Amino acid sequence: MAKQVFDVIVIGTGAGGGMAIKTLCEAGLKVCALNAGRKLDPEKDFRYHRMPWEMKFRGLDDPKHRSESYGYMDNEYTKAAWEHEIPFTTAPGTKWMWPRCFAVGGKTNFWGRSSARFGDIDFRAASLDGYDVDWPVTYDEIAPYYTRVEKMIGVASTAQNRPSNPDGSYLPPMNFRCIDRILEAGARKVGVPYLHDRIAQLTQEHEGHPACHFCGECTTGCDVGAFFSTPYFLLPKAEATKNLELRTDALAKNILVDDNGQAAGVAYIDRKTKHEVEVYGRAVVVAASCVESSRIMLNSKSRHWPNGIANSSGQLGRNLCDHLYGETARGYLPQLLGQPSFPDHVSDSTIAWLPRWQNLKDPHEEKFVRGYALYPDGGCADFPWYANDLDGFGSSFKKEIKRRFPTPVTFGIQAPSLRSDTNYVDLDPEVKDPYGIPVARLHFQWDENVLKMWEHAKQVSAEIIRAAGGVVEGAGEAPEVPGYSLHETGTCRMGNDPKNFVTNRFGQTHDVPNLYVCDASVFLGCTDKTTTISILTFSLRTSERLIENLRRGEH
Amino acid sequence: MAGQGIERREVLRILATAAAAAQFPGFSKWAFACGHVGNGAAQIKPAAYRPQFFMAQEYATVERLAEMILPTDGTPGAKEAGVAEFIDFMVSRDTEVQYRFRTGLTWLNAHSERAFGQPFVELTPDQQTAVLEPLAYKDKARPGEEDGRSFFKVVREFTVTGFYTSEVGYKALDHPALKFYSESPECPHKDDPEHLHLSRTS
């Protein structure tokens, strides 16, 4: 039997892979998509409409298994979605908290949905403040792709006309709640913007997808598809073309090369049979998410690529960046004491944001370079966590819990780490996964710059709460452990110089022209914005470049 | 609340499930889940409950503590929400917490015996309150009772968790997640951005 050769093999079905799969299939290319985990069954796996008392452990999960949990998202609501079989390790001194979703759709099943565009202030950051290097792209060339992605996925927001966050084409915004109006007034006094977040949550029916019903449980999976995820928005379109063969439980092991060292396909483990399988293609797209993509490429060693495929620069796996997250202030708004409960919970992450306002006029205005964003939260949320800080017991205690229910507020920071030689991913020389494949080892510390942002944000957040008439009760003792944001970037950075960058400005690897990277690993780092919409945007652009190259007979 | 009450939720449920059913395979679960308000079938009946971890007197003490922390006082409390069962169930699966409960309960009974000559559950309600107050209020704290205070904190945390993750607790808060909303809920106090002139309801 002649060996089957697909046009393209895509590793991963998350934001980057999903966009590549859809774009390539719609262009008439035969695509084989490999996904390391299974397909989720929304009926069983999404428990977002279950109330806590409808679950055995009230959503808190079995205390017996808590020590095996990978963190805050790995809970009873989304129990089956997170990867536990394939380990990762950390270098001495590195802490890394990291729930990974290997299921079809990846983290888009449960993401936070904040969807702001990067701008020239991000792409040209190095020219502005002298740190690191510029991106090899300009906003003008990326903007049309953002517009197309926003139309595909539906993003609710307002035009804000600010230099740090370019405006896009938006659905009507989520409405501001009482807590937003109060904090907005406080932020105005402090001189800080308080605006509608850009949020991929459908405030109206969009492109055949139903409007949100505001149940407020988005990050446990939406089975009506009222926010973007690849299984609801992109993969059905790819399947409709009949050009897609999706292989699940297919754990990519390494990229196969031909006699010239070019990509010939992918070797993967079929996790059901435990056998190694090879699949061949004219081109390969790696989109397994930043760290996993690096792991696969580093594991792709051959006589052509002794240090991992497309790694002649030595930069594969280097330059790992992440978002620092953490609670910069918590308190309450006495104005709302005893008010009737209000549906503050209708988006479980973001309705408003405080987009970067630092270092805009002068890149060295602050004690740190670049900038961060803040996200407010609060009001009548899932659980009266503040109760444990109150005094007493009995009727007065119970009454006070009810009285305080509408009042809590918190701020969370999203701050980019700076590129560093000491933050990177390599292969653990000793630890292998159950299939004998070396696992990823993380080396990561927060840098001084990002910790200055954290201190700055704590001060400003407290000021805003006070200016809003609120009472500040504390803040997180320390930022969250690295990995928490799930926003890793930078391990296959794009750049024009093959000596210093893994991919070119289109996400095509310099060394292996028929190998493309479609996830956040091509980004030069994190910004004050989230990553998903930019992954989609850059993946769309890379996929179209790939189509063009195939048409021209280059691969 | 902009008229977004429970009846509206019912209308929305019909509209949204119909729209969703046309396209999405997850429909049946969603429709099922919409019916869950007021459906307490999954709850354990207190009468039938047999403690899995605590011994009889320990369990009676936990029950009494939970009821004192969140009493039935015209509105439902820990008793109606089955909080003691929740605590026993969770503690039965958590060895670290088991130790804290067992030593804490021992402390509480020894302390009650010293003060009033009886274990905690045998005391009069006034005596029980007198035992708990120094443990629960910062300004009534007494030296030498640190272990008791830290135990009371744990019991209170478990009680609060058990109550406010129950249907009874959600209703007590009038929790907004008991309803769905057809549009993104909006602050109704447009003329008062700082909310300095709201009427006091309680």
Characterization of the model:
The complex is a heterodimer of chains A (555) and B (202). Chain A has 555 residues and is of the alpha/beta class. Chain A has twelve helices and 16 strands. In chain A, helix 5 packs across helix 12 and helix 6 (178-190) crosses helix 11. The relative contact order of chain A is 0.19. Chain B is mainly alpha-helical and 202 residues long. Chain B has one domain (8-195). Chain B has eight helices and no strands. Chain B has helices spanning 6-23, 27-34, 56-69, 83-91, 95-116, 125-136, 146-164, 167-173. Residues 1-46 of chain B have low confidence and may be disordered. The chains are: A alpha/beta (555), B mainly alpha (202). Chains A and B meet through helix 2, helix 6 and helix 10 of A and helix 1, helix 2, helix 6, helix 7 and helix 8 of B.
Give the gist of this structure:
The complex is a heterodimer of chains A (555) and B (202). By secondary structure, chain A is an alpha/beta fold.
Biggest beta sheet attributes of chain A: 7 strands, mixed
Distance between the termini of chain B: 17 Å
How much of the sequence of chain A is in beta strands? Answer: 15-25%
Protein structure class of chain B: mainly alpha
Structural class of chain A: alpha/beta
How many helical elements of chain B? 8
Strand content of chain B: under 5%
What is the molecular shape of chain B?
globular
Gap from first CA to last CA of chain A: 23 Å
Largest sheet of chain B: none
Fraction of residues in H or I helices of chain A: 10-25%
| Helix percentage of chain B | 40-55%
Ranges of chain A where pLDDT stays below 50 over 5 or more residues in a row are none
Shape of chain A: globular
Most extensive chain interface and residues per partner: A-B, 76 and 73 residues
